[in-house]
Amino acid sequence: MRVLVLTGAGVSAESGIPTFRGKDGYWRNLDPARLATPEAFTRDPKLVWEWYRERRHRIRNAQPNAAHEAIARLGQHADEFLLVTQNVDDLHARAGLLKEKMVQIHGDIFVTRCSRCEFERHEYEQEQEHGLPKCPECHALVRPGVVWFGEQLSRNELERVENFLNGGACDVVIVAGTTATFGYIIDWALRGSRDGAELIEVNPEETPLSQFATRLFREAAAIALPRLVNQLLTKPTA
Ligand code: OAD
């Protein structure tokens, strides 16, 4: 079985991580779509860092939920598998999914990188810094290692997605917990399912991908995914 899974913020919602859109997405009355931009960082880097530090803190204290665990199990048992997640949290990895089976297409919130040079580090521990951290090498401001609106996706990670899509037809494509706002998410879901693969959507709400889905689960990911993965692993596709 060759499986592609695409996830978004809805998969981590039941771990207590707010999604981006919708009423729970706002932070101090600010719209994340305006905070997660290079312009916001240039205008008020302190504010942007406060938002990311709070999110890092919340993610460190969160636990993977049944949706992350089901995806990790599928990743372990499928013959060929790739997860492309828009989530910058580490909950898929903490549920046991190997890094080589996963692409974090919008980056990793625990990476801090320089806004000017190539320096980057991984913040395994709670960082002590307050205020504005600087690059130890060139003294420019450092920033979270995530992709902001209007920025390019990592070429390396894009290549990993392309290699998987070009590597053969999928049997199953699962899209869970994302509004599928970005064209490339829709494109990958459709390309992955082009040769008659099942396209399964897990989302309580309708999205632009719903019309193409061969199966819809209008349920929370932590409810639907364990059931779906059990079905897939006990009933091999023809
Ligand atoms: P959104 O916040 O746009 O969407 C969350 C989706 O999850 C919605 O479609 C909800 O209906 C659905 N949802 C909510 N609770 C759910 C649950 N318990 N189970 C399943 N689904 C649930 O998040 P994303 O689609 O991930 O990018 O957003 C995409 C990107 O836009 C993010 O990666 C981020 C954001 O701005 C950047 O920062 C570049």
Can you give a write-up of this model?
- The chain has nine helices and nine strands.
- The protein has helices at 10-13, 32-35, 38-43, 45-60, 66-77, 91-94, 155-166, 183-192, 221-234, and strands spanning 2-7, 80-85, 102-104, 107-114, 120-122, 142-146, 172-176, 198-202, 215-217.
- Helix 8 (183-192) links the parallel strand 7 (172-176) and strand 8 (198-202).
- The structure holds 2'-O-acetyl adenosine-5-diphosphoribose (OAD).
- 2'-O-acetyl adenosine-5-diphosphoribose binds at residues 8-10, 13-14, 19-21, 25, 32-33, 36, 86, 106, 147, 149, 177-179, 181, 202-205, 207, 220-221.
Which helices and strands appear, and what pairs or packs with what?
Elements: E1 2-7, H1 10-13, H2 32-35, H3 38-43, H4 45-60, H5 66-77, E2 80-85, H6 91-94, E3 102-104, E4 107-114, E5 120-122, E6 142-146, H7 155-166, E7 172-176, H8 183-192, E8 198-202, E9 215-217, H9 221-234
Parallel strand pairs: 1-2, 1-7, 2-3, 7-8, 8-9
Antiparallel strand pairs: 4-5, 4-6
Helix pairs in contact: 5-9
The protein binds 2'-O-acetyl adenosine-5-diphosphoribose (OAD).
2'-O-acetyl adenosine-5-diphosphoribose binds next to helix 1 and helix 2.
